[in-house]
Amino acid sequence: MSNFLKFYEEHGISPVSQDIEDLGLHFHRRIGLYRTLGITPLLFKNRDVLEVAPGSGYNSIVTATFGAHSYDLVEPNPVGFGEMIKLFDKYKFEKLGIEFFNCRLEDFSEKRDYDIVLCEGLIPGLDNQDEFIIRLAKTVRSGGILVVTCADVVSLFFETLRRYLSRILISRAIKNECANGNSVMSILTKAFQPHLASLSGMSRPAEDWVYDVLLNPAASSIADKEFSIEKCLNIVGHNFWFYGSSPNFLSNMCWYKKIEREPKEYNRVMINSFKEQRHNLLHYNEVGNSDLLANEKLFRLCLYFTRCVDAINIENPGDFSPVRIKEDTASVRELLCVVQDIKLLRSTAAISEFLNLFLNNSLPSAKEIAHANNFSTAFGRGQQYLSLVKT
């Protein structure tokens, strides 16, 4: 079972809702994503489509308008499944050929394959990533397209800094004897809602983001369970060709007449491109030049700090003494030197401001975190979408 799913079911939530009041904008974003991945709405027409873990169905209502021959949606979370049914009913989209299944992929009874298979935001939270994606890949027809999302400790580094700050705020709430669910949510929302407001494309409610990123234990396992583009291609790269990505920063400069005959060889070029560009995952609003050695160091330091944060108990994070904070953030200070050397100016300013929150051995308040200008606008490239074509 997905660790995210376990948390959702225990709390009876589906924190993946979106603001779709401007439905045209919502469609524009989703169609734009598909286009970046090399998939136009026309490719869905009269095709068999499977979507695994569509959540509450906000993105699925867009896909449902593309005229697929069949569209199977497999959502294991009962709350999300119910919300998805209501959403489809609300917008009265044509349901011809659409089937809803409230189960996990492992329990999905349909024994057939599909032209397009979508799985978004699920695999990085799984304990059995290799086994799951191999099972998912078997549902794709020869020549069909698989779309998955990847994430790693570099792309989620600024979220990791926020998780560390959230542990400090929770620790203070415990000391002040106001650590019940509502008060913790209020404190964390006060601290981080201004950060989210800086993202022009942010369509999730702040409370959903807090649940998913700060309070969900599954978010505290990314260091040991990261599902990077490199890992994904290493698992399925012998049967799938790299097709597209969002963000679209990978490149293959090989002449088309000398293209590799096997996907594994072709994908190796893309993996090397990923390693060379990995620093550009750090900040969504910044790109720079780097090299493999600098990126390897950047990755190691992000990994080290992420493991430090992952080890902190969310419900009882303990006391944050000046000595502890200095030890915890040692890798962040070293990482700051790396981003300075490769001239990632926005990242440098944001990380510096994060460290300055602890000047004079102080612990930052929710208000101080909310108004840390450079840090508040720093987000990584979070999930990366990857499209693959089956041999």
Descriptive account of the structure:
The protein has helices at 3-11, 23-36, 41-44, 60-63, 78-91, 129-137, 157-175, 181-197, 206-215, 222-225, 229-236, 263-277, 292-310, 322-328, 330-341, 345-356, 366-370, 373-376; strands at 48-52, 70-74, 98-101, 114-119, 140-150, 240-246, 384-390. By secondary structure, it is α/β, with parallel strands linked by helices. The protein has a seven-stranded mixed β-sheet, with helices on one face. The longest helix has 19 residues, at 157-175. It is globular. The mean pLDDT is 90.
Give the tags.
48% helix; globular; alpha/beta; 391 residues; single chain; 18 helices; seven-stranded mixed sheet
SS element count, helices: 18
Write down the Rg: 21 Å
Q: CA-to-CA gap between the ends?
A: 29 Å
Biggest sheet, open or closed, and with what strands and sense? 7 strands, mixed
Query: Secondary-structure element order, as H and E?
Result: HHHEHEHEEHEHHHHHEHHHHHHHE
pLDDT average, as an integer? 90
Contiguous runs where pLDDT drops below 50 for at least 5 residues:
none
Structural class: alpha/beta
For the largest sheet, list the strands in their spatial order: 3-2-1-4-5-7-6
Percent of residues in helices: 40-55%
Number of DSSP-assigned strands: 7
- What overall geometry do the principal axes of the alpha carbons give? globular
What is the strand content?
5-15%
Produce the secondary structure layout.
Elements: H1 3-11, H2 23-36, H3 41-44, E1 48-52, H4 60-63, E2 70-74, H5 78-91, E3 98-101, E4 114-119, H6 129-137, E5 140-150, H7 157-175, H8 181-197, H9 206-215, H10 222-225, H11 229-236, E6 240-246, H12 263-277, H13 292-310, H14 322-328, H15 330-341, H16 345-356, H17 366-370, H18 373-376, E7 384-390
Parallel strand pairs: 1-2, 1-4, 2-3, 4-5
Antiparallel strand pairs: 5-7, 6-7
